[in-house]
Amino acid sequence: METDRTSRSSVSWQRGSYRGRSGRRRKRKRKPWGERIADWIRTLIAFLFSNVGIVCLVVGYTIAGAFLFIYIEGKISLDVAGDVIKLRNSTAADLWELTSKENVFSEKLWKEKVRNILEDYQTTIVSSIKNGYNGMKETKWTFAGAFLYSLTVITTIGYGNICPKTKWGKVATIVYAIIGMPLFLLYLSNIGDILARSFKWTYARCCLCKCRRRPYDAASARASEISNDPAAKRDRWPQIVSTYGEEIDTSSLNVEETLPRDDDNGEVNGSDGDDEDDDDESDSYDPQHVTVPLTLCLAIMVGYIWGGAFLFSTWEDWNMLDGSYFCFVSLSTIGFGDIVPGEEIYSGHAFDLSFIMCSMYLMLGKFYIYVYDASPFIICM
Amino acid sequence: MPRGISMRSSLRSRDSSSTSTGVDPRERVKDCCRKLVAFMCTQVGVGGLVVGYAIVGAFGFISIESQVNQTVCVQDDTRREYANELWLRTASNQSVNVFNQTAFYVVSNSILQRYQENITGRKQQKLNCNGLAPQDVWTFPAALMFCLSVFTMIGYGSLVPKTQWGKGATVIYAVLGIPLYVLYFLNMGKVFAQTFKWLYTQLHECTGQRKPGQRIIVPSTACLWVIFGYIIVGSIIFAEWEGWDYLDSTYFCVTSLCKIGMGDLVPGWSHSTEDSQTKLIINFVYMLLGMGLIAMCYNLMKEEVYVKARELKEQLNQVMDTIHYKLITCCKSEPTD
């Protein structure tokens, strides 16, 4: 993962440098400062894009899955609901038949026969419930419901409160899971990595600032030549970007001054190596010197679960225990599905707040789990 | 991880070569035995720990959940009630003429609808209306499966704790159990991977394709075939037992091994006879072994996938760079010209 990140960042940097230089050639004499800012912004966008791209991929995959499952499963549920109504009518007809033909005045006999009819009726209804009938006329496979279903499949939570009933739905679930889970893992490792790094960085800034001066500070001292204000240090990414920006500027200026124009490829590679070294230094520094204590991670986890419990208990009339039980079961990907928020999610009012919050909670929660996962492993290695 | 494995295998091979040339066979046998015992202690120890943890958890949950006297509703009673109501509202009611068909239809249809909603609601809430007390539901194999589904994060949800204490205990049990399971997963993965690698090497030696100094990497397709075979075997077993069709049981196996665990299909959960209890136990073993196999594949494929992904990424980067360069040169040439 480390090398992944370095190579990616170096690539994004490289791209930035290409663009930056071409930009400079065009408007070098006009604005050196605006140019520099534009450079930073461009690098920032390139950085964001690599991660945002994955987020978009996952979200797009989930939406595609939602439409797929609606297409496969939606029709059949409606059919089943229609069948149930027909069944009720036919049972009423049976009852009428019974009353009109048999002796109405013997209560015992009549009740015996009605009970038989009711038993048949019950078994048919139970079997139709197993086939996806849920007591409502509309299907559970609304867009929101199907979206949550796809999400629970690729995150391997699997509540099971709605599940595919048709053959094609099952096949689609298998294929969807096999493709989706690696994708989600990729996404998780990417975003979780960023989250873990930023968390670590924040921790290092907040708690270990006064302890000792670290190599990272030495590295970033160069960057702070441009932006001396301490406020810039508060965020890590702009800072790194600014470091890059500085180096881009100096190295490419050197290139401009010393070399003819056609040779810039090699020089870019050279400065690329230089930059990678820098990145490596900061990377190797991070896990080795700043180990976020496990208790803090646990505290954050517990806090996250409690926050979720509080949120859900205010919405859903659960008590705190039920809420935290639900949050825990969801975040640990156990997913019993005995308590699931938002019946209204499945009943057709798509895109209400509860639905969005629920999916956001699940997606973000996975990052926290990842952070929690990652830190002990980093300590081990 | 891969580096560790390769180092260990190389160490072992050097060891075996030195002993084969050196001291007497008794020492060698002793050495082998010692190694075997150490190996069993570490790896099987973890396996035993997991199984023991599951058993302890099963007893704990049985004792917690059986304490409560839940109201057990019986479908029979409800049916009788509704039949009674039908009688009262139609045949014995003076206002409803028995010879008026539409009136009869309206009344009986509304009663039937209420009956149906009653049943549906109960099914949805997963209340146990089969007349079984919690003591009957929480049999030992069922509780064992519940524990397994908690700490492997499958979470079938076909059997869930209903009491407050049960829920709290589930949370604590999962917090303690999941790291243990992860340990088991990593350990078993290593063991299975080594065994599989050894088997693969032996096969190579048998066919005589192997040159002496060659290091053999198990191809990832082989791992995939193993998993595929395991799923097929499982789906055949469950299909034969449960009378499911093959698609259903394949669906069950895949969703279980992927830890999704929908819980709409669970073998031997519906009725607690002796037969279904053995099924649950075998399901338990199947799941644990399957997780180990998946860990093995993860272990074996990690290296290869990593290398391939890096190659792909480099190729992609090159392509992107060339495109970029071309684009930039195009853009550059445009304004100047």
TrEMBL record, chain A:
Quote the protein name from its UniProt record: Potassium channel subfamily K member 18
- Secretion signal: which residues? none
State the Gene Ontology BP annotations: stabilization of membrane potential
Skewed-composition ranges (Acidic residues): 272-284
Q: Which domain of life is it from?
A: Eukaryota
Q: Which SUPFAM superfamilies match?
A: Voltage-gated potassium channels
Kindly list the GO CC terms recorded for this protein: plasma membrane
The record ties this protein, via PANTHER family, to: BCDNA.GH04802-RELATED, POTASSIUM CHANNEL, SUBFAMILY K
- One of its Pfam families is Ion_trans_2
Which residue spans traverse the membrane?
A: 44-72, 141-159, 171-189, 290-312, 324-341, 353-372
Q: Where in the cell is it found?
A: Membrane
Q: Which family does it belong to?
A: Belongs to the two pore domain potassium channel (TC 1.A.1.8) family.
UniProtKB/TrEMBL annotation, chain B:
Q: Which residues lie in Low complexity bias regions?
A: 1-20
Q: Which residues cross the membrane?
A: 36-62, 137-159, 171-196, 216-239, 281-301
Tell me the superkingdom of the source: Eukaryota
* Record-annotated Potassium channel domain positions: 137-193, 226-301
Asked if the Swiss-Prot or TrEMBL record annotates the protein with the keyword ATP-binding, the reply is no
- InterPro entries named among the record's database cross-references: 2pore_dom_K_chnl, K_chnl_dom
Kindly list the places in or outside the cell where this protein is found, as annotated in its UniProt entry: Membrane
Q: Give the start-end ranges of region Disordered.
A: 1-25
**Protein's name according to its UniProt entry:** TWiK family of potassium channels protein 18
- Taxonomic path: Eukaryota, Metazoa, Ecdysozoa, Arthropoda, Hexapoda
